[in-house]
Write a structure and sequence with these properties.
- The complex is a heterodimer.
- Chain A is α/β, with parallel strands linked by helices.
- Chain A folds into 3 domains: 206 residues, Rossmann fold; 187 residues, Dimethylsulfoxide Reductase, domain 2, CATH 3.40.228; 127 residues, Barwin-like endoglucanases, CATH 2.40.40.20.
- Chain A is 29% helix and 16% strand.
- Chain A is built from 27 helices and 25 strands.
- Chain A has a 7-stranded mixed β-sheet with strand order 5-4-15-14-13-6-7, with helices on one face. A 6-stranded mixed β-barrel of chain A has the order 20-24-21-23-22-25.
- The longest helix of chain A is centred in the first third of the chain and has 19 residues.
- The N terminus of chain A is likely disordered.
- Chain B is of the alpha+beta class.
- Chain B has a domain of 109 residues: Alpha-Beta Plaits.
- Helices cover 31% and strands 23% of the residues of chain B.
- Chain B contains 6 helices and 8 strands; from the N terminus they run βαββαββαββααβα.
- In chain B, a hairpin with a 2-residue loop joins strand 2 and strand 3.
- The longest helix of chain B is centred in the C-terminal third of the chain and has 24 residues.
- Chain B is globular and about 60 Å long.
- The model of chain B has no long low-confidence stretch (mean pLDDT 91).
- Classes of the chains: A alpha/beta, B alpha+beta.
- At the A-B interface, helix 1, strand 3, helix 2, helix 8 and helix 26 of A face helix 1, strand 2, strand 3 and helix 5 of B.
Chain lengths: 724, 171
């Protein structure tokens, strides 16, 4: 027990010492998944359980997706599960919104109060004035969306209002559907602003293996990543200029006749306008805009267009976290069609959506399930008019609008928020959203920890980790898991699913399906697959589904593209209808050295935020000492050249300023950032990086914040006492 | 006697630090700076010609371990059972002499002052498991086994590359 005594940050009673799972120590290995990060990762976990407590976690070797690996975050699961700051009971606010004054209440009382308040608001101002919100993780989303609609509110929104959905919109505008890179068959991979080594660790072994087999790699992005050493070409663009670079590459590909003439002639709309437009992006012009040398642009364009098949790998957000986001992303995905790599073996291969963002060929009824009430039977979503194109493709409300819509009577106010894992610091101008939330009439938040967002709530409900609940999980390797809890929910915490279905009894009693409970609902969703929860329970580590029918390549040849024209659209019909540029035109970011030189005089550096660090995912593992200890201080990355010009040394406290705000952080001198660019991780509670952005620093098509290109300046500063 | 050791492929390491945390979980480390494994980022050159690489290091269990030589209490010895450089906690006086001579920063000191370090997860290895860091390695940069086996594996991998390049040339 001596080692245990040192674990002061863990709940000592629940963590007996022990290292190796041998029988004589009564250590049992139970399988589950880690759900700390992206839904397409979620590595398999062996939890070593002794006397009802987890004493060790490690990756499940036999898991076909993660093959035994866990990243720094997943490896820290034990500290996450048993953290002393976990919420233990439902809590009722006693003091001011934002204060720490709460008192424990029972689950029944909490749910009764929620029911009373929500029904009252529904009677007074309609169900639409209650917004439902889901942050990270995403596993409970379909159930919350259904709950919102069954309650009568169209205003279901998620963290995906700043993640992934803008790239999805861009892809659907161009092609009507989309697919990830078909890595196993590809000969050339164009990786556009993604660092899978820190964001998707379960995939990188296969990527490195492919590289060792001879896969060519072109990397695009301002930062040096662990991929850079493996890339044949690295195009270090100025943040916010992806669109221009893509047009520059298209210029070369078209001029040198390296494009797929047959595909372009038969399957695209608006090629002539597109060709005329990219004519203006000669390598020299493109170099001037992007900062990438003209020869490198030419080389990369030839390489991508002539190494067949080639696939494009993008991330969920970096290319769309700009005030020109959707058009940027449309420009770069247009290269797939141009080179004839769309829906081809080894290119980008379209597989229909399965379950929770994972496509493996299994078809579920997820979207029918979520939309329990058709849109016309509810009030319009608050963001339908402002973001018509985004709203057409994304069956949610754009959450970036919440700060503006709380108590705003036009067209109707948002008075209450029912949130699952909300973090107000995700919003640009996070202080503005914080103040706005204080004006809510009622707020509920479920979480694992007493976060600053929980402090804004009237009622806080304790959720549990993936180790304490059951959930359905698909993997691309034709693998399906229905997890079994490896320990009981700690204290009085409960699975979000149990909370959702208990709430459904109270606020959506007419929804017959939801009254049947969690597992019956999952069975309903799974119906077309022939799988059932009862069957999956027999395979706690996962079930390998046999003979999944994979869709053919080049599906468009049979049925056309699911766009208005039936073709890939270089010029988008839908964008035109909504009065946006139909072509994926390039605009400078709202604030940039070229668009606002007068602002750049005082703020000459470009700020890019939110690139992943390996030990954090957003704010989720900040409070764990195992991960926090690896990078304890908030630091900005600055090139040694820029630092030298400003008299800044490694570890100095500096003021990072934008036209809106200034924060104090430490300086990390590194060649990972090019000169002229400042990079900082987001999500710290102190300082708040997102206060550097205006709340309306958004892309007009998607409402996505321009987190990855703003103007800033960095100056050496004395540290304030409160930071020490 | 079989000499055990780690192998490390610098071309594959991404600096993800999963090995560091897996080690903390395995060894119940408190997360206050004590770590049996360190990951270091190396940068060479300056913009636009830069190379960034990572190294993950722990105790190397040196054959001629300098820590063993300098320990005034003879608290560090080679365990004859498995050839691991072991520290006898009860004999350690926390003088840090071992840390001064260790080229790898392996000796660590807990709040109680005694030296501790990587022991290859020998408890796990004796049960047929890999060390925790190797098991979790997201890129398979870390390996573990007898030095003989590891050398053979590396030779095989290099040979495949050489043969590959020769075949490409002649084709």
């Amino acid at each position: 027990m001596r080692k245990n005594a040192r674990l002061t940050h863990l709940d000592a009673n629940r963590t007996p010492a022990g290292k190796v799972p041998v029988e004589e120590r009564d250590v049992e290995i139970r399988q589950t998944i880690c759900a700390i990060c992206n839904p397409f990762s979620h590595c398999g976990v062996d939890a070593h359980v002794k006397d009802g407590a987890i004493i060790k976690v490690e990756g499940t070797k036999s898991h076909p997706h993660s093959e035994g690996t866990l990243c720094a975050k997943g490896a820290a699961s034990r500290e996450y599960i048993y953290h002393k700051e976990r919420l233990r009971t439902p809590l009722l606010r006693k003091g001011e919104r934002g204060s720490d004054e709460f008192e424990p209440i029972s689950w029944d009382e909490a749910l009764d109060r929620i029911e009373d308040r929500l029904q009252k608001i529904k009677r007074e101002s309609g169900p639409e004035s209650v917004a439902f919100y889901v942050g990270y993780t995403k596993w409970m989303r379909p159930f919350v969306k259904r709950l919102a609609h069954s309650f009568g509110s169209p205003n279901y929104c998620t963290e995906s209002s700043t993640c992934y959905t803008a790239t999805k919109v861009a892809n659907l505008l161009n092609y009507g559907y989309f697919g990830p890179p078909n890595l196993a068959k590809s000969k050339c991979l164009l990786v556009w602003s993604k660092n899978p080594f820190y964001s998707d660790t379960s995939a990188v072994r296969r990527l490195l293996d492919a590289r060792e087999r001879g896969l060519k790699i072109i990397e695009v992005g301002p930062l040096i990543t662990p991929l850079t050493a493996h890339a044949d070409i690295h195009l270090r663009i100025r943040p916010g200029t992806s669109g221009a670079l893509a047009h520059g590459m298209a210029h070369v590909i078209i001029e040198e006749e390296l494009f797929d003439v047959d595909f372009v002639e038969n399957w695209t709309l608006g090629f002539e306008e597109y060709r005329a437009y990219v004519e203006g992006f000669s390598p020299a012009v493109t170099e001037e805009i992007t900062g990438v040398p003209a020869e490198l642009i030419e080389q990369a364009a030839r390489f991508y267009a002539t190494t067949k098949p080639a696939a494009l790998m993008t991330s969920a957000s970096p290319t769309v976290h700009h005030t020109n986001g959707v058009q940027n992303h449309r420009a770069l995905t247009a290269l797939i069609g141009l080179t004839g790599n769309f829906d081809r073996e080894g290119g980008n291969y379209v597989v229909p959506p399965g379950w929770l963002y994972v496509e493996n060929g299994l078809i579920t009824r997820q979207s029918q399930y979520e939309q329990s009430r058709p849109w016309p039977e509810m009030a319009p979503r608050i963001t339908e008019q402002k973001y018509p194109v985004w709203s057409r493709f994304i069956p949610e409300t754009q959450a970036m609008e919440l700060p503006f819509q709380i108590q705003n009577p036009d067209p109707y106010p948002i008075r209450a928020v029912v949130a699952f894992g909300m973090n107000y610091r995700m919003w640009p101008g996070s202080d503005f959203f914080y103040e706005s939330m204080k004006k809510l009439d009622f707020m509920v938040n479920m979480d694992l920890f007493m976060t600053d967002t929980c402090r804004l709530a009237d009622i806080v409900l304790p959720a549990c980790t993936s180790f304490e609940r059951s959930e359905l999980k698909f993997y691309t390797e034709d693998y399906v898991v229905w997890t079994t809890p490896v320990i009981r929910p700690l204290w009085e915490s409960r699975s979000d699913a149990d909370i959702i279905f208990d709430l459904a009894k109270r606020i959506a009693p007419e929804d017959d399906l939801m009254q049947k409970g969690y597992e019956a609902n999952v069975d309903w969703i799974l119906e077309p697959t022939g799988l059932k929860v009862e069957k999956l329970k027999k395979y706690p580590a996962g079930y390998a589904v046999k003979n999944i029918e994979k869709p053919p390549y080049q599906k468009y040849e049979k049925s056309g593209f699911p766009t208005p024209s039936g073709k890939m659209e270089f010029a988008s019909t839908i964008m035109e209808e909504a009065n946006y540029d139909p072509l994926p035109t390039f605009q400078e970011p709202k604030l940039s050295p070229r668009s606002t030189p007068e602002v750049a005089k005082d703020f000459p550096l470009i700020l890019t935020t939110g690139a992943r660090l390996p030990m954090y995912i957003h704010s989720r593992t900040f409070r764990l000492s195992w991960t926090r200890g690896l990078r304890p201080d908030p630091m900005l990355d600055i090139n040694p050249k820029d630092a030298g010009e400003r008299g800044i040394s490694q570890g100095d406290w500096v003021a990072l300023s934008t036209p809106r705000n200034s924060i104090k952080v430490k300086a990390n001198l590194t060649e990972v950032v090019p000169p002229g660019v400042i990079n900082i991780f987001h999500g710290y509670s102190e300082p708040e990086v997102n206060t550097l952005f205006e709340p309306d620093y958004l892309d007009p098509v998607s409402g996505f914040p321009g987190f990855k290109s703003l103007l800033c300046e960095v100056k050496k500063t004395e540290v304030e006492k409160r930071l020490l | 006697m079989i000499q055990l050791g780690f192998s490390f492929d610098i071309s594959r390491c991404s600096g993800c630090m999963a090995c560091v945390v897996a080690c903390m979980d395995q060894n119940n480390l408190p997360g206050d700076g004590v770590a049996y494994r360190h990951v270091i980022q190396l940068e060479k050159g300056e913009y636009p010609s830069v190379r960034v690489s990572f190294v993950s290091l722990s105790c190397q269990n040196c054959t001629d371990a300098p820590c063993r030589v300098v320990c005034p209490r003879n608290a560090i010895l080679r365990n004859p059972r498995n050839e691991i450089v072991d520290v006898i906690k009860d004999a350690c006086i926390g003088c840090h002499s071992c840390a001064m001579v260790c080229p790898f920063g392996a000796p660590q000191f807990s709040s109680e002052g005694k030296m501790s370090k990587c022991d290859f997860c020998i408890d796990r290895v004796e049960q047929g498991m890999e060390p925790a860091c190797v098991h979790t390695c997201t890129t398979r940069a870390l390996g573990f086994g007898s030095m003989k086996e590891l050398a053979k594996k590396k030779a095989e991998k290099a040979s495949v590359k050489i043969l590959d390049s020769l075949l490409t040339v002649s084709a």
